[in-house]
Amino acid sequence: MPETASTSTAWQRERAWLGYAGLIPFIACAVVIASNPQPAWTSVATDTLRHYAAVIASFLGAVHWGVAADRHDPLPHARLRWGIMPALIAWTLLALPPASAFFGYAFLFAAILFVDRRLLPVLDDAYRRLRLQLTSIVVVALLLAGFTTPAGLAT
Length: 155
Fold this sequence. Notes:
Blueprint lengths: L4 H17 L2 H12 L3 H30 L7 H18 L4 H22 L5 H24 L7
Helix pairs in contact: 1-6, 2-3, 2-6, 3-4, 3-5, 4-5, 5-6
């Protein structure tokens, strides 16, 4: 079935809603960490945010593998190599103390966006704008968590 203007708009709208829904754990955990309501809640929010950041970074890297699967892709090796890097870096960041990990994740998400804007020419302008918005919010949430994580919180 050929894509029409209405299906394209519906698809872009769904993509945006799902992208913004994916921000909920970043924002909620960062708010809990920053407000530090109870040590147990802060600990759960810290672990949850670190693990969610690792999962989402891995997901974003995997997009490159999907593009590299296209037989007409001129850069399959570069995409495959970069595609695994977010997962490996995110996994490594899990071993760091929470505040350091959050700062590392903030940098990682900015780097993923930078690389995606150069290595993924298949991205449409609406997606590029959406990714910039989503990544900006993610980076702010991670920086907030990094600056407000209580000292001495176990990994």
